[in-house]
Amino acid sequence: MIEQLLRTPFTELTGVRHPVVQTGMGWVSGPRLVSGTANAGGLGILASATMTYEELEHAILEVKGRTDQPFGVNLRADAGDAGERCDLLIQHGVRVASFALAPKPDLIAKLKDHGVVVMPSVGAARHAEKVAAWGADAVMVQGGEGGGHTGPVPTTLLLPTVLDAVDIPVVAAGGFFDGRGLAAALSYGAAGVGMGTRFLLTQDSAVPQAVKDLYLRHDLTGTVVTAKVDGMPHRMLRTDLVQELEETGAVKRLGPTVRRTLEFKRTSGLSWLELAKDGRAMKRAQGRTLAQMTLAANTPVMLKAGLVEGDTGAGVLASGQVVGVIDDLPTCEELVDRIVLRAVEELRRGSSYVL
Fold it and tell me: Which of 22, 60, 215, 283 is deepest in the core (most CB within 10 A)?
């Protein structure tokens, strides 16, 4: 474990040693991975969207039992119990609250009043401006190379526009996997990098070994962005199942969609009324159609089948394009150490070019 070698506005804000964030991936970012990242000096983020309230509290307590370092929790701002979950973070002294969608100003204010750092994810400069005006402490911006829900603009073009738009720390995500990427992001003006797929492919990740091996066999053309899974652009591994979904019409997808929706209701513990409330909130926040909201209920079940149960024939596997350049499974400590050391080497080398 190396000492702190880089000081940025993000490390100062959160109290972590290194400007490296392990993003909140559903079914992947559990206590073992989060604590492994935290103990390595980065910011590990629990993914709570696939957890019940009780499961989230248990996961927070488990992380605290594994590390005394800062960590975060990713929340759905449009969830019916978002306020209660924020209370949970406050109660247990969680350092960072990250959001896939922008939380309302009153929620941001409540968290900040209790010392919780608020870091929404954004996909455009105007979104960054909005949450910064509402009081967000930092933002994470993900370019189109990233896994999961993503947009069409690459990080190299999206990041500068966000940096020009706000004066709060910006964490860059989408396409990062090593120290060269961290050095490049810092040179752009970012305060750190966020990585998902790179942390999924570590020894501390609980993803089944057979699934990790499948990821490692994919090259730079091994991912595809499709809206056929949950109605929104979603980057994932190019598998037989995804190819089948791409080629199947809406009518043929209806039966499996209904079955997975019922399974999601069962595993989430939500009532039909709670599902309907979440659906209305999703429609207001994201402008999704009824069909898209129905598809969205499938995503957690399909991701769980692949990432937890290892059933790649029935599940989908979210992935960034960086999967094509990853060929090993280090521990979180080994990964963070080598990323930081390489970044420092590249930054020093680059500074030698200045006359």
Answer: 22
